[in-house]
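Possible regression after last week's pipeline update?

I re-ran a chain I had predicted before the update to compare outputs. Posting the input and the new output here so someone can diff against the archived version. Not blocking, just want to make sure nothing changed silently.
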Amino acid sequence: MNTELKVVHDIEIPEKPVLRMPKLLLSKWLAALRSGEYTQSTNWLYDTQQEGYCCLGVLQHCEDGKVEGTSDDEVGLPSRAWLTSKGISGSGLKAFYDVSHDYPVADVLIRESHFKQGTEMSAGWVRAVSLAGINDDGAHTFPQIADIIESITETY
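New output (post-update):
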């Protein structure tokens, strides 16, 4: 399968959108990420120690004025139910079951591919690029993440 890719802030992303959401919600999310009003942190929707958000925590906070959980609760991703209730869908939603919290959660998978280890293609090894991963890598700011989100999202 040959997927056309483009590069945004050193991240290869598909030419076709992998996320779909209401136009107003996307606009609010992008504006919040670019506003400078949110402190960026990692691993949790909201980190109570650092008083900062991950990019998915900003999404929840700008929409609801709160997040589903914090570092105190060890909640790092939005629930699948929350995303569905906000009309967020797409091939990029990677849902899985968080056994520690007993509910389905989801991350936005931007791209998944086999990667080279040495000179041989390693069958079974998959490299996933997700919004949480880009947020947590420490190399991308909220405005850069906003550009990536804008490039992978279609609205209705």
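Follow-up from reviewer: compared with the archived run. Residues 114-122 have pLDDT under 50 and may be disordered. Marking as no regression found.
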